[in-house]
Specification:
With 144 residues, the protein is mostly helical. The chain has helices at residues 5-31, 37-48, 54-61, 65-77, 101-121, 127-141; strands spanning 81-86, 95-99. Strands 1-2 form a two-stranded antiparallel ribbon.
Length: 144
């Protein structure tokens, strides 16, 4: 069955997104970065979402709450996340999460390592190409 050029481009975009995800995970393991891709994602969400709870993470990532609880338990045991207690304004919604000082440091270190890798991969691109790429990714991740 013949596909339109648009369908072929969509298939290629999908395959490239999968490859990007695999490469990020592989690089994290290979370089011994301080965080896995999942840990980095959860810490970034908590850092960017003041007052975040496990239920907020489960909703944002479309995950089961028990899966999120297991991941968070690991982050708490590593000393990267702390539970601040319940928000009186939101009874029954779980404990408010925050990064510890060590969690902030590990997140910054992991982000710097990933950004350095990205900087290297884009080193031959023009400033305009990098700008267009960043703009396209933002548009893809936050459609109107």
């Amino acid at each position: 069955m013949a596909h339109s050029p648009r369908e072929a481009d969509i298939r290629q975009a999908y395959e490239q997104i999968q490859e990007l995800s695999r490469r990020i995970n592989d690089r994290s393991r290979r370089l011994g970065e301080p965080l896995s891709f999942v840990e980095h994602s959860l810490l970034r969400f908590i850092a960017n979402t003041p007052g975040a709870r496990a239920t907020d993470i489960a909703s944002a990532f479309s995950l089961n709450r028990s899966t999120v609880s297991r991941q968070l338990a690991g982050l708490v045991s590593m000393g990267l996340v702390t539970e601040l207690g319940h928000d009186a304004g939101a009874p029954g919604r779980g404990r408010v999460l925050a990064l510890t000082g060590e969690g902030e440091a590990k997140l910054a270190q992991a982000a710097a390592a990933q950004q350095e890798s990205l900087r290297g991969r884009l080193s031959s691109w023009s400033d305009a190409q990098v700008h267009d790429f960043a703009t396209a990714l933002a548009r893809y991740n936050h459609p109107e």
